[in-house]
């Protein structure tokens, strides 16, 4: 009886465990970082800055530079609250945000030091 109970307990523990997934890399004060290694494994592009708190994630591949050196980035529709959080996280991450031609844009895209 004890062996059966022990066996069932071991089976229960084996099948009830869950795998935890994490990523290699520290986050900045905004909860984000630039992906440098194994980016594809996490569904990211190399050099992509992303946050882990529901903020904006973007890749340098989707920039639209204009003749004045600014970069426009496609972003999803956001609520005002999401927009304000994203704006604050980009400013904290060292991004230079501006307003040109009726839209917000990233004026300079400095690389964030890891």
Automatic annotation (TrEMBL):
What are the entry keywords? Signal
Signal as UniProt keyword: yes
Extract the signal peptide range. Answer: 1-19
Q: Which domain of life is it from?
A: Bacteria
The record's section on NCBIfam families has: YHYH_alt (NF033223)
Protein name (database record): YHYH domain-containing protein
Q: Which organism is it from?
A: Paenibacillus lemnae
């Amino acid at each position: 009886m004890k062996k059966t109970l022990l066996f069932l307990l071991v089976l229960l523990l084996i099948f009830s465990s869950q795998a935890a997934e994490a990523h290699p890399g520290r986050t900045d004060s905004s909860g984000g970082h630039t992906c440098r290694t194994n980016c594809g494994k996490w569904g990211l592009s190399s050099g992509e800055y992303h946050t882990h708190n529901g903020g904006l994630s973007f890749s340098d591949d989707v920039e639209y530079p204009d003749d004045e050196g600014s970069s426009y980035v496609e972003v999803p529709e956001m609520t005002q609250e999401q927009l304000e959080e994203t704006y604050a996280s980009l400013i904290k991450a060292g991004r230079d945000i501006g307003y040109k031609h009726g839209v917000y844009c990233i004026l300079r895209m400095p690389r964030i030091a890891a």
